[in-house]
Amino acid sequence: MTRFTVNNQPVHYKMDPDTPLLWALRDASNLTGTKYGCGTGACGACTVDIDGEAVRSCQRTIAAVEGSFVTTIEGLSRERTHPAQMALIAGNVVQCGFCIPGIVMAASVLLKKNRNPSEDDIRAGITNLCRCGIYPRLIEAILLAASVQRGDETIDAPPAPGTSPADAAREVPALMPRNR
User: Where is this region: Disordered (predicted)?
Assistant: First the structure.
């Protein structure tokens, strides 16, 4: 049996129990935000949250997650309002975007466990690879996300999915310090 919960929905995959979770999510559930990068667990593009842990889904079989709660980028926040998503957008971190879903998922797990991470905590917790080299901006964005999550700062919501580029340019997220 391969029954578990994905994005708060119970699922039962009628696939080989040795199927990597990545392919069950992408092919059977059409949750394509979880990306295939290297297939070896090194890059982190396939990172999902399994029971509060950042896990490389290419390295976990569906049998191994029996009874677990899995959250993918689609289940984190469809409106892109999770502090990690908003901070990456506000900090202009996203370049090609391929690695971003896995990075956001790793960041969301880090921020659940540590509301006030240091730069070293972020480097240790976000081991995902990015070919665009976003690391300095990424660290700043995760620090901002932690600040937003604690309520120290706010970020205007990003443009809604499907917003035209011209409209999005008029709605650039702005950092707004709170009580400073």
Answer: 154-180
Domain with 152, as residue range(s), is: 83-174
CATH number (domain holding residue 146): 1.10.150.120
pTM of this structure: 0.86
pLDDT by residue for the chain (180 residues), tens digit each? 689 999 999 999 999 999 999 999 999 999 999 999 999 999 999 999 999 999 999 999 999 999 999 999 999 998 889 999 999 999 999 999 999 999 999 999 999 999 999 999 999 999 999 999 999 999 999 999 999 999 999 988 766 666 665 565 445 444 444 443
In a shared domain, residues 62 and 93: no
Which of 76, 98, 115 is at the close of a domain?
Answer: 76
* Residue after which a domain boundary falls, among 16, 50, 76: 76
Of 96, 151, 148, 100, whose CA–CA distance to 126 is shortest? Answer: 100
Please, are residues 128 and 162 in contact by the beta-carbon 8 Å criterion? Answer: no
